[in-house]
Write a structure and sequence with these properties.
193 residues; elongated; 62% helix; 6 helices
Amino acid sequence: MRRTRRTLLWTAAVLTVGPIVGWLLLVSTGTVKKPGGSLQPPFDLSDRLSSIDVQERDGRRLAIFEDSGETFEFTGDELLAELAQRQKPLNPVLRVLDVTSATGVFWVVFGLLGQAVFMGRMIVQWWASERAKASIVPTAFWWLSLLGATMLMIYFIWRKEIVGFLGQCTGWGIYLRNLWLIYGKPAKGSDSR
């Protein structure tokens, strides 16, 4: 009994801490940009991770970008004109996925994979119920729920979508608790002393 609960705790810890550690490693090696860091080059507003600082100076609102120690300041009209000038035709696939780079495509594919894992739990439950000719919920259902929800939570953090994140994290505790209850039962025929 203790061993299976310990395994469950380690799995939950890896699913929780693993993505955070992975992200920090990617940021520290420079593979991905640090959110809020300087833009390379200016106006690289791809994949929803960049921001523009808007400040009011001398009664005017200015969009402020910093890049390699150089500061770029634009009024609203100047910003729109500069963006229109630098705009590149966007690949139709990128437009549909609502991203602007291969990094964004990776994240969307990751989110779709998380959704497929989350949907797979229902297929597993349906298949098990058909075999048993009764409505049952196999253990694999809860594992797929936990894995799919974790992947979707990571995706929603990247997308900065609080609604999707909250929707998944509320179920996450329930999936973990059900696994805790399943693995906490003594095996049939074992001595319960």
